Structures are given as C-alpha cells and as structure tokens.
Amino acid sequence: MHPISFVEKFQSFIILAAVLIGLGLSRVPGVAEQAGRFILPFLLLMLLGVFIQLPLREIAAAFKHGKVTGLSLLINFVWNPLFAWLLGWIFLRQQPALWLGLIMLMVTPCTDWYLVFTNIARGNVALGTALLPWNLFLQLLLLPLYLLLLAGTLIPLEWSVLVRSVIVVLLLPLLTAVFLRRLLLYWKGADWLERRLLPKIQPGQILFLGLAIVAMFASEGAELLESPLVVLALLPPVLLFFAVNFVLVYLTARLASLSYANYAALCCTTLARNSPIALAIALVAFPEQPLIALALVIGPLIELPVLGVVAQLLLRINASGWLSDAPVPDAAQ
Known about the structure:
13 helices; Na+/H+ antiporter like fold; mainly alpha
C-alpha cells in the first residue's frame, strides 16, 4: 500500500476547486461550446489509470476469505441498490434526475481509494485488494440491469444505449489497461510496476478526474447554476446511506464473528462508492440530463470527508475492543 500523496490527501478539495473553476469558465464566452468535447477523453484517461492498477491475479484470493467475500457481494450488489432506490423514493421523488444519479452512485462500489481508508483504519488491505476486481467486474455487468430495473420508470432508458455506454466507456479502457499491464510486466517487471509506476498513477488519475469535472461544469454551468439547492437535496439520502450501512456492517460483523481487520475491510468496501465510473456512464448515456452528472460529482464531496471520519471511528472501535471476542483472521474468513 503506497503512502497517501498530496493529491490523494486533498482529493475532495481538488474536486471542489474543479467545480468552482468550471463554473467560472462557463461564464467565459465560447468556452461552454468547446468544453463538452474534453469531458469523455479526460474520463477515459482517468479510467485507464484505474484499470491498470487492478490486480487481476487477486480474483481467486477473495475466496480464501469466503465469509467476508460473500457478505461484501451481498451488501454491495443486493442491499445497496435496493436501499439506494428506497432513499431516492423517500427524498428525491420530485427530482427524478437526482434520484437516478443517487442510484448510479450507490450501485457502483469503489475500485481504488477505499484501500487507502482500509489502510488508515488498520484493516485487512490484502483482503480489500482481493475484493477489488470483483467490485469492478460485477458493477460492469450489473449497472445496466440496475438502471433498467430500478431507474427505468424515472427517466427514459434504452438498453442498447446503456450497453453501448458500458462498452465504450468501461470495457475498452479495461481491455486496453489489461494489455498495457501485461506488456509492462513483460518489459519492466513486477517490481518496477508496483514500486515505480503504480504509486504515480493514482495522483494522475485524480487530476484527470478534476479536469473532466472542470470541462463538465464549464459546459453545463449555466444550467447547473439554476439548481443551487441540489447539494442540500442530496445531503440527507447520501448521509443516511453511510450512517445506516456503517451500523449494518458493524452488526453483521458481530453476528458473523469477524476479526477487526476483516470487519474494517468489509466496512470500507461497502461504504466507498465509485463515482468516476458512474459519472463516465452518465455523461455518455444521459447527455441531456446534467443533473445526473451533478449528483455524481457532489457525491465525492460528501463521501471523502465521511470516509475519513469512518476510518477514525473504526480505529476507535478497534481500541475499544468492541470486536475483541472475534477470532483472528484465517482462511475461512
């Protein structure tokens, strides 16, 4: 696990600054008409950085921790989509675009920075790494299905558009990243890849995300400025998602007799969300609905500070011994 870089530490501030810069540029004549063409290229570069870090060799390792893997997949891919739909129904029924954005945010588990918070909380980073490829592949397969089943009545959706969006935005960068990773492993070796290249990719990934957000807000800023209360509308369901799931995972860990390290890994992977991937899909599949993308940009502004608090709460739980009756990690967990 590489040390947290300056860019990673201040990711939420970088995203906020990108939003403000984009809104400022949207008022410059001629910028809005040109900015939109840069959004997808920046996102594709960011996603290439995400995918090239994927440790595909860890896929089978997840089954060495069968109990945690099963709980993680159940919470991430069954409970979270249904809970997200319910939260949207309670809080966002009058704003279907935000409701859809909330669903897209909550059905895509994180594939990168949750490992940073797992490490901070002294959780089982190896287990978190083993879960990472499953988080990615299952959301690639299930995201179109979730949108059709849970969001099809909110905004008109076409199956062909969703599938095409997944192929163009996710599958092609993934295949490119797998090819590049294998080529670099053959050319430079695993040590160079793990120690020299990958630690530099994460900051670049965040910067490309920031540039994509600048371009998006520069392109759609005029319309988005007409919806200043969007942040306030999203706060209750997003915060409730994190609060309820934090309690749910703790109770589940107690019932399943998980060790603290495995509990912390489970907590981080079921709380952290993958807003960049959801944002890329939204921009391609719903270009006429900027509020969907806005919801997916606001999500990390709320999520990252919350995950920082969660990491500290996990450390307190560890220090308090609330899971002291749980066994030491073993292959069955």
